[in-house]
Fold:
Amino acid sequence: LSDTDKHYIYSPETSPQPRVYFQTPAGTTEEPETPVRKQGRVTVKYDRKELRKRLNLEEWIIDQLTDLYDCEEEAIPELEIDVDELLDMPSDVDRAARVKDLLVDCFKPTEDFITELLDKIRGMQKLSTPQKK
Structure:
């Protein structure tokens, strides 16, 4: 099978170690109807604590944006507050300016949101590259 023909199924409940199984997609004629599973190992782990912090931060950002724009989550204007981009910036002044630019069409005051966001991301790590353990 080529890489494009493989579907990845993560099965954490089968073992305390992370496992990846490869399954032949439905509709291929070269395999019997029962899925073929080969066990593989995930060799790189993300720092779970950082992932949890990031998830909590993203949920907080969504809650704050729904308040700032006074709307439901689905109606928030399309804007992307990229935490990794902010972490790459040299200073809080640059970060604040970037977030302020993203919120340019928000009519409510955004200063408190920006200040709290910068406090929350201080000390966070970028998640674009996984950490090896």
